[in-house]
Design goal:
Elements lengths: L11 E2 L2 E5 L8 E6 L6 E9 L12 E6 L6 E2 L6 H6 L11 E7 L2 E4 L9 E8 L4 E8 L10 E4 L1 E4 L2 E3 L2 E3 L3 E4 L3 E3 L16 E4 L3 E4 L7 E6 L20 E3 L13 E4 L2 E4 L5 E9 L3 E13 L2 E12 L5 E10 L5 E6 L8 E5 L2 E6 L10 E8 L5 E3 L4 E6 L5 E10 L9 H13 L3 E4 L2
Antiparallel strand pairs: 1-6, 2-7, 3-10, 3-34, 4-9, 5-7, 5-10, 8-9, 11-17, 12-15, 13-14, 16-23, 17-18, 18-19, 19-20, 21-22, 21-27, 23-24, 24-25, 25-26, 26-33, 27-32, 28-29, 29-30, 30-33, 31-32
């Protein structure tokens, strides 16, 4: 099998110095980003509301640069116009008294999150030392660069055939779909959906959700950083050079599945009148899947549910957001980590107003080490509950909404997690105390 590697050619290193004058930079936008945590973090997600920069709506013709920074970045210079390149050309030997400032291009993306057709958020990843504040600038450019894709989100389905007795038969093609109403004939074992449902993947890990009444979340361990899950045709329960499906979900909530809990009972989103799949963002640094379920009947309530999963490059976690609307009757949600005998002990902790919990042991499908963790902001009042299949936590929505993260590491991943407890701790702390953005001009 050939694996697609989504690399930019040619890739050139760019280290820049720029003579700063007031007139030269009237159309630039400067901001600072502070690490609020008392320890260093790497590839932390930074979100900048474009409206806060007073830029024209939908304008994303700019390049992000880190100021006074020796962290090297790579970019394809062939995409830039001559005017932009002249502005960032080296002037390190200036004699006119202007300040020379080192600037490095930072990979970023500009996303439309509210669906109005206009980008509204700048997203990028950055490393920070303990409580460090870093300076960034947006510089206008006629053309914006393309960066290596390190995330993807997709649903790949058969076409050209039909559903018949619970199976999709006579399919003639396979294609990726977006903004797609899921047919109610899609059930477990139909063979219609590649990997049985939506998949989201970073250069570190992959996840999927079953697109049927099970509606649970599974994990793919990755032995290579390339994005490959849309190309897999083998039995993915066996170990291959790219990795494997590492989790046995069974009757549990797998890892991070959203459910409702009531009087000791757990119910996943197992019924609906209609479903819709969307990929609002599919970028180099983050990708998002949105699933909408209409008319979920659960413990005496009928609600519409929207859940989004967001995955970031260079990271192992999924950030999951759930929104309820309708007659919720104070519905309590739940999530957790599957219980497996080799990892029966649930470890817990808290940091930066986030509860975190994890298990470790030889609990993968193939009998190898698999660590799994969740992080839930304490504002949702997470409480541990007894359950036969899942290390279960209840979650109390605020105005019908909850946000939490889950993460994992497999023994044969291509990068090692030396201390999984610290990994889960930082995953939660960065959710409740993300890098703080301050607009400086």
């Amino acid at each position: 099998m050939l694996f697609r590697t989504r690399m930019l050619v040619p890739i050139l290193l760019l280290t820049l110095t720029l003579a700063c004058t007031e007139n030269d930079h009237a159309d630039e936008y400067h901001f600072s980003v502070q690490n609020q945590l008392s320890y260093a973090v790497s590839e932390a997600a930074v979100r900048v509301d474009l409206a806060s920069l007073n830029r024209p709506p939908g304008d994303c013709k700019f390049v992000l640069l880190a100021v006074q920074d020796d962290r090297n970045q790579e970019v394809n210079l062939e995409q830039f116009d001559e005017r932009f390149l002249s502005r960032i050309s080296s002037q390190s030997h200036s004699t006119d008294g202007n300040l020379n400032v080192a600037r490095h291009i930072v990979p970023s993306q500009c996303d439309d999150l509210n669906g109005d057709g206009k980008p509204d958020e700048l997203f990028f990843l950055a490393d920070f030392e303990t409580e460090e504040t870093r300076q960034f600038v947006l510089m206008p450019a006629e053309q914006t660069p393309e960066f290596q894709h390190r995330t993807q989100a997709f649903l790949k389905v058969q076409t050209g055939g039909r559903f018949e007795d619970g199976r999709y038969v006579d399919g003639t093609n396979s294609e990726l779909v977006n903004n797609f109403d899921i047919p109610n004939e899609q059930v477990q074992g139909s063979g219609w959906a590649h990997m049985e449902g939506p998949v989201w993947e970073s250069d570190k890990v992959g996840y999927r959700s079953y697109l049927d009444a099970r509606n649970r979340i599974d994990i793919f361990g990755k032995s290579m950083q390339e994005l490959v899950l849309d190309t897999i045709t083998q039995n993915y329960h066996q170990i291959h050079p790219w990795g494997t499906d590492v989790l046995v979900v069974g009757s549990s909530l797998g890892l991070g599945t959203v459910a409702a809990v009531y009087n000791g009972e757990v119910q996943t989103i197992d019924n609906w009148s209609g479903r819709r799949f969307e990929v609002p963002v599919n970028g180099p640094l983050r990708s998002i899947i949105r699933m909408t379920y209409n008319d979920w009947n659960v413990f005496g309530s009928t609600v519409d549910v929207v859940w989004e999963v967001e995955i970031h490059a260079g990271n192992r976690y999924t950030e999951q957001r759930v929104r309820l609307s309708g007659v919720a009757n104070n519905l309590t949600l739940g999530t957790g980590i599957v219980k497996h005998p080799p990892a029966e002990v649930l470890h817990t902790g808290s940091d930066s107003n986030s509860l975190y919990a994890w298990t470790s042991g030889d609990q993968s499908d193939q009998g190898h080490r698999l660590d799994m963790g969740i992080a839930i902001p304490e504002r949702y009042k997470p409480a541990h509950l007894e359950d036969n299949f899942t290390h279960l936590y209840s979650i109390t929505p605020i105005n019908g909404k909850v946000t939490y993260r889950y993460t994992s590491a497999w023994e044969f991943d291509h990068t090692e997690v030396a201390d999984f407890r610290q990994h889960v701790r930082k995953t939660g702390a960065l959710l409740t105390n993300p890098p703080l953005v301050t607009i400086t001009n």
